[in-house]
Amino acid sequence: MNIVIVIDLIDNLTNGSVMTARRFADGLRERGHDVRLVAIGAEGERDVAVKERYVPVLSEVSAKNQIKFGKFERARIAEAFKDADIVHFIFPFKLEKKCKKLADEMGVPTTAAFHVQPEDVSYNVHLERSAAVNNYIYSYLRRKFYAKFNRIHCPSKFIANQLDRHGYNAELYVISNGYDRDFRPPETRRRNEKFEVVMVGRLSPEKKQKVLIAAVAQSKFKDRIHLTLLGNGPCKKKLIKQAAKAGVDVTFGFLGKSELIKKLQTSDLYVHASTVEIEAIACIEAIACGLVPVISDSDLSATPQFALDERSLFENDNSAQLAKKMDYWLENEAERLKMGEIYAASAKKYSLDNSLALAERMFIDEINDKKGAHAGQEEHAAQEAQGAL
User: Fold this and answer.
1) Mind listing the domains of the chain with CATH numbers?
2) Is-above-0.90 flag for pTM?
3) Which phi and psi angles does 283 have, rounded to 5°?
4) Three-class DSSP category at 25
């Protein structure tokens, strides 16, 4: 297939949706497809590297969360769409809206992914408790973008249920974003001088790294824990201050793929404290590397699906309970190592290869429906012509 993926930016390696798009593009190419990108930072020979679109105020706010907006360049994008079998959209912003209209005009089949959870938006404007605001965002996204599609990629059953509740009538394909096969357990797991606890994710209010720092401060093993928070975002300075005040040994940073795999393979425990999460590929990657997770049981997050029992779940926003769950796993090494192997096996159903096969099925379904509709229109037109004669 000739597949075009439209996403505002492709060059920010700390943005989860960007990394998902890059993995999908690379994986589809490995499976023999011609994949082109329309995005800021696209570098392929047949890609369309669009310019950045500046939106007063919004661009500044979005930049803190690793988002830039692409500018619609009709002639260049139309050239990329000309021989496309399908155009797939990652975000629901202005670039995607205009590209969707162009694809429809050109008769090219389209599908979309749902990666922008409304609660991510409301948390960053301090309105996370407003059901009215979140419901409005779901409704706005549906009316302005997703209602124009027959098929939507949902990274988890959780978000598919949310879309169904909010009146999204498209066919919803539950397809994990998929983890790279290079994420796997080490041949032997070393014993560290300190307990190595890690969390990966954007440093923003809804990801709740502050709860994890508070939990480490309350742990009976506080002085024996080294915490690593991997990611970037608007809360970094606050988190640094919180950790310093609490006396928590913490390292902040960002790691490339090979370094991240090594970090996960040499850590003792993974924590995912986020309140809002469409899937959390970072948690799957940690599990695939043989780490036992401790996950927030938030009802706005899909991540609890990865917990195999209650020992890996803690009450959302409850740092005291998180500390107790962490302490259990840290003091029970044999059980932690045994369950790490079981968790690694459980991750296999979320492999990128499996996700790519499901995505191909979604693309083919849309292409075949489009061909069927076009054939039906031609037949109807022929019948009308015969009637006129």
Assistant:
1) 2-178+351-384 (3.40.50.2000), 195-349 (3.40.50.2000)
2) no
3) -70, -40
4) helix
